[in-house]
Amino acid sequence: MDKKQRLIKHTGQEIRNLEFINSHKSALCDFTRDCVFSFALVFVLLLQKSVKSLQLILNELFVEAHIKSTVTVSAYSQVRKKFKHTAFIALNEKAIEIYYSNDKIKRWKGYRVFGVDGSRIILPNHREIKAELGEIPIKNQHGNRGCYSSAMFECRYDVLNHIAYQSGLYPSDSYEVNLAIDLLKQSVNKGEDHLKDLDIYDRGYASYKMIAHLVHYKRDFVIRCKANTFKEATSLFAGQGSWSKVVKLSAPTDKKEEMQMAGVPTEVEVRFVSVVLDTGEIEVLITSLIGANIRRSEFKTLYFLRWGVEGFYHLLKGRLNLENFTGKSLESVKQDFWSSIYISNVETIFTEDVEDELNADLAPEQLTKKINKAVSFNAIKNLAFQLFFYEEDQSNVREKLIQLFRTNTLVQRPERSSSRKKFSWTRTISFQKRSRKHVF
């Protein structure tokens, strides 16, 4: 049984399993009667997360014979409160376990490579959400001030295998370094400190505190350095001397007591490496790979892999419309958040083999092919009922998925790049209203 089959079977069994349902419902009496909305039905609706009118979605359930009678938005809103977002967390953990259950994964020099970064998410303006996750002050061109609800999304993303390995939703005023340390502790607590992993961080994480925790937990890392963060990197930014040097960093005087209380070292040995960008600009990286025989150009390529986590955020906010929440309560926000994480990992498991087959017999001059994410997510959401809701042979459904994945593939141009542009709010709003194509 391959990964896709295992995932489909496990998900279908769990959403009908009484023990699983009892663990992820709000009250003991929920989902005990034979009603229109079963636990499995609510799961599929949340997984699909359509941007259409909710009443139209519910009407389509009746038209397509998934339910025997029409239902109202109010009925769905009430039953949705009974479904806990923790169901998606549990299913996502199992999906990740299934993916890594064999050793046929992509690595860089034997390392699993993770991009770690945070992104701010705009949330519905509701007092319950503000109370737990906070808000951000804003002002317009007239000086009028206000606030909007938001949260920080921190993710540790496998950039080679496209798996959201660890994710978390945190208060909007959280410090990214603390969030990254929290994910680091979680992975170690799961007994994964023995794995050969390499984490890549952007300049916002270049601090002694972050480095000390990574060294303490024996995690290999690469961090892009700011020009004014460590004096030891000054000569490298200036292009003076060797492109690589090993130095000992000491905790800042005002942070030494904090490091001691945290149980992390107050002195660490790291390697500073300078790389030359295509523009001729010099960037400096801090790494734990001290004795590794890695060329300068390889460090540049390695750090570039970090863009995988940026692409993941673009995928969630763009293709999957993460910030277009389907409810205004705190629980509905968490349901949409974790269902989006889950379906992104499901899509990776479903498409990986197909993408490998597409690129198996390419000639040297041919470009690598990629599955169109708009097509793959649309296919999975459209076939979600056949995949997870009905207990029947899935072979025909899987064959349909493969045929859809092969439709309208894209080519990957590794040397292609485009400059970042600052768009006006008018142009941004126009794109959202008129040009953006929704997946489902």
Description:
The protein is globular and about 75 Å long. The protein contains 18 helices and eleven strands. It is an alpha+beta fold. The strands form two sheets. Strands 1, 2, 3, 4, 5, 6, 7, 8 and 9 form a nine-stranded mixed β-sheet that branches. It folds into two domains: 3-88 and 325-435, no CATH class; 107-309, no CATH class.
Helix segment tally: 18
Radius of gyration, in Å, reads 24 Å
Count of spatially separate domains: 2
Order of helices and strands: HHHHHHEHEEEHEHEHEHEEHHHEHHHEH
How far apart are the first and last residues' alpha carbons, in Å?
30 Å
Query: What is the molecular shape?
Result: globular
Low-confidence stretches: none
Biggest sheet overview: 9 strands, mixed
Number of strands: 11
- As a percent range, the share of strand residues is 15-25%
Mean pLDDT: 90
